[in-house]
Design brief:
The protein has helices spanning about 10-20, 40-50, 65-75, 90-95, 95-115, 150-170, 190-200, 220-230, 265-275, 300-305, 315-330; strands at about 1-5, 25-30, 55-60, 80, 120-125, 175-180, 180-185, 205-210, 215, 220, 255-260, 265, 280-285. Strand 5, helix 6 (about 150-170) and strand 6 form a beta-alpha-beta unit. The chain is of the alpha/beta class. The model has no long low-confidence stretch (mean pLDDT about 95). The strands form 4 sheets. It has a 7-stranded parallel beta sheet, with helices on both faces. The chain is globular and about 55 Å long.
Amino acid sequence: MKYLVTGAAGFIGAAVAHRLCEMGHTVVGIDNLNTYYDVNLKLERLQSLKMHYNFTFLTLDLFEKASVASLFQVEKFDKVIHLGAQAGVRFSLENPNAYSDANLAGHINILEGCRHNNVQHLIYASSSSVYGMNTQQPFKESHAVDHPVSLYAATKRANELLSHTYSHLYGIPTTGLRFFTVYGPWGRPDMAPFKFTKAIAEGKAIDVYNHGDMYRDFTYIDDIVEGIVRVQGVIPVKDDATRDTPNSSDAPYSIYNIGNGSPVRLMDFIEAIEESLGVEAKKNYMPMQPGDVPSTWASTEELYKATGYKPVVDIKTGVDKFVSWYKDFYGI
């Protein structure tokens, strides 16, 4: 099959592109290579993808409507895995227009490409952030998600709503994946696992928000990739008998959580990094940041029902693999 992977220079996008190529598929990857974080890391990910004869990369911005439309018309993709977006909760407080361009207009451009070119299945990245002020845990796809607490989260929820509209109007099978705090080798420098590891390795203090009283459903990258690969084969179908719920309807539309299903106390995660590095962290205890939430916890029941898969990598194993990669990559 022929796949489009957007955000192919990104953390998850590059890992998914690798896996699809190893499976023998033809993969076209696009990314705008923006400077939100170190471009050199993105370029290194792309360099590692060049080993695959069946991978092609194009520098392209999702906001460029005509370019995206032309790409779809020329390449005739079978399936699309849309992982490109402007990431980051805190950055959205400072640069809202970056999110309206990439996450809203860009998502519509992808939907239009799928609509006009008979794409079999669109899989796209949502986020655990959509649960916002929801206090019911574990987070279930059937929960209402109408109160986001950051612009980033609001754009991800908007992606889900836009996708449902296209599924309903045009019969495009769409599946949204709510990722829960993804970490691992080649991870993003703006996320806590990377920031903590870097600071601790350099002997610098780390900022611990909400005085450490936070829980996250940390999910290892290999589990995310496995979930994506399995979900792409589970194509939603129109079913007039399906009852409308927050995560399903009679349209060919689905939503799944992909999380470890076992929330970890932030201080325990930091301790795992300390043990792996063999260094105790200096800690600055801080209040909660705007747009943040104290706890995330994914219900993985729906993913398991659909694919037979549950994430399996525990925190110690995942942290050790990340720290090992970090030390090797940065020559520590």
